[in-house]
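Researcher: Can you fold this with magnesium ion in place?
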Amino acid sequence: MTVEMQTDQDIKKYAQQVDEPQWFTSMRLKAQQEVEDLTLPNFQKIQYHSWPINATRKLEVGDHRLTDEKLVTEQANIVQIGSKVIQKDLPQEFMDKGVIVCDWATALKKHSELVEKYFMTMATEPTENRLNAEHVAHLTSGLLIYVPKNVILKHPLTSYFFQDARQSRDYVHHLLLIADRGSEVSYLENTGTIGTKPCPANIIEEVIAEPDSHIKFASVDRLGENTTAYLNRRGYLKRNARIDWSMGMMNDGNIVGDFDSELVGEASHAEVKVVAISTGDQVQGIDTRVTNYGQHSLGNILQHGVILARSSLIFNGIGHIIHGARGAEAQQESRVLMLSTKARGDANPILLIDDNDVVAGHAASVGRVDEQKMYYLMSRGVDKKTAERLVIRGFLGPVLSALPSKEVRKVLADMIERKLVNGQKDE
Amino acid sequence: MATLEVKDLHVKAKEEEKEILTGVNLKMTTGEIHAIMGPNGTGKSTLSETIMGNPNYEVLKGDILINGQSIIGLPVDQRARAGLFLAMQYPAEIPGITNAEFIRAAINSRRAEDDQMPIPAFLKKLDHTLKTLDMTEEMSERYLNEGFSGGEKKRNEILQLMMIEPKFAILDEIDSGLDIDALKVVSRGVNAMRGPKFGSLIITHYQRLLNYIKPDVVHVMMGGKIVKSGDAELAVKLEDEGYAGLRDELGLDVKLVDEE
Ligand SMILES: Nc1ncnc2c1ncn2[C@@H]1O[C@H](COP(=O)(O)OP(=O)(O)O)[C@@H](O)[C@H]1O
Ligand SMILES: [Mg+2]
């Protein structure tokens, strides 16, 4: 496949069309120049370099009209297809308290300064690797969420992001979530795909926790079977801030997930919970890192995954404590359970400790379903597949029960069941 | 009326060479309670596990039939749905699923998709059964066997038995590790199941349990086969004379693991 490269002229043309601010266009042009010189990010044991993961197509204003798909039945505050918002229904409280929730075009137009301050300036950078640079050069959709100082939100915000793969196009999507000083917000994100064309997805999500803020970030990712995805979620935590990540990797295609928390501020705290299920022939590589810069910062990683059929799941857990982060703590546990002999799984704990006065620990395991348990369950009459799902539920239980929200627990449990039932058809 | 029949059953463990069961014959019908007594290591658990369909055992010869139909080719879950239940000597612990949830899944596995047991009916039955077994509601909400004491696990096996209502229940040393009060409770449960639609094969090392659950037939197993059958009196006699006595009386060449 030869794709005509995107030129500077293409970027300028698009910028004019959507009327984006000059600073953003300059950033794009700079990123585009860097793309060729940058390499793909490396993640241990995750081999994805030959995947069709690169965003290459020229920027265009997509037409994301819906024909007859019923996309959302559950309560959703924001639904986006490609770059287009098709549903926006915010809790009254958000309006009353001056919370900003808007799509990317609006964010650039109306909140340019805010975006300029935070967009890939702290949590990650355009030139960090090739996929990041492609992201900036090809970005067409996204969402900005800003919670003002000291605003405590009672209602969670639920979003749905659908990649539009009804035509071949790159899905390049950005989330910028900022919780300003002393604020609290709970956010539940659902990603998915409509259409079946093989397409890359390049999603970068920055979650900025200003001092004393608290963010509960939950996600259920269900990108399609023919999507090849780079999903980069970055938390940037200032003094005394906290992020609770709860992520369900329920995608059907190949994906690299890079989930990092930069514990910059003193006593900042990240809890990272991941459950993943791989089915069919897919590969899911998940690289979860906490980096302690701040003194007395705390990062905990807990990730459990299940592998069916001929699929693969790789969990890297990285605890990095920077010199000077006295009293910091990094803990991690990664476990995978394989249900078939053709499944491939890995759980790699990686500890990089540059300071003495710290606490760090890790646990990792790769195992198979316990035959004794299966026999016991089946001896009461439940069939093999149901018994497997029960054992899996038990295996994922420690992560699910540690999630901070009951709603999220329920949503995830349902998704897990669904993905497992589907995956088992292919055993 | 249903029948369970074991014919000239020869069995070995999957990874081993040696025959453990060397030709077991047994026939029972619903409405009856049979006891199997025998010294340690004689193959009682092997017999129960093989009837249930534990994949660790391999049938070398013989057959197992329910109502004249061989079940030897069936996996364990199908045997369960055909009416078999095994209260295991060492029940597995399964975190993440509660007792109540599991029992409901087990009951519903026997029913059609559009005829699942309604929750109120289930809860009512569960409540009643818990009471019979002196169990608290809290125990039904705990994860399946997780962290249960030996005695609690045994009670929990009987709870499942009573909820599922199988045609034939094999109880493998349900009395081991139970004090006298727990023994009475467990026996009360089994006796409550007694009736024309239920048969039970009670495996025990000691006669004591049979004071509480009166068997119709007693079999003695030694050296991997049944060497003598009789009525309840046989158990009493065995208690007095010991396995060694019976062995010598029958002139058997069997070595007892723990001569008593
Ligand atoms: N899974 C197994 N693998 C190997 N040997 C076994 C296995 N199960 C039973 N055996 C052996 O078979 C014999 C009978 O054991 P078992 O059936 O447990 O006896 P009982 O229940 O009468 O005490 C013992 O010698 C035991 O070691
Ligand atoms: Mg035994």
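Model: Folded with magnesium ion in place. Chain B touches chain A through 27 residues (CB under 8 Å).
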